[in-house]
TrEMBL record:
This is Enoyl-CoA hydratase. SUPFAM superfamilies: ClpP/crotonase. It comes from Undibacterium arcticum. Gene3D superfamilies: 2-enoyl-CoA Hydratase, Chain A, domain 1 (3.90.226.10). InterPro entries: ClpP/crotonase-like_dom_sf (IPR029045).
Length: 91
């Protein structure tokens, strides 16, 4: 039985199994997982959360769908190209 760990995105979910393995699972309704700005932010911060979680012994990153991850949302990529603040995570 797995326990869900809450994240602030729908780009991926985290399931903690009974053996202490946290599964970071990229997901997408379209079958090709992509990561938007919220997903990047959640991914950047989740490592600290998992590091101090008392039941996490290991982390496995995987994906559901046709590919591991199709990349970033193209609108987000364009925003990052257009804005230095967004490239630095400030926008």
């Amino acid at each position: 039985m797995s326990t869900l760990i809450t994240v602030a995105t729908d780009n991926f979910r985290i399931e903690l199994d009974d053996t202490g393995v946290a599964h970071v699972i990229f997901q997408s309704a379209s079958g090709m997982p992509v990561t938007d700005a919220a997903g990047h932010g959640a991914l950047a911060s989740i490592w600290r959360t998992l590091n101090v979680h008392p039941k996490v012994r290991a982390i496995l990153v995987r994906s559901e769908g046709k590919a591991f991850c199709a990349g970033g949302d193209l609108e987000m990529v364009q925003d990052m190209l257009d804005s230095e603040a967004k490239r630095r995570g400030r926008g």
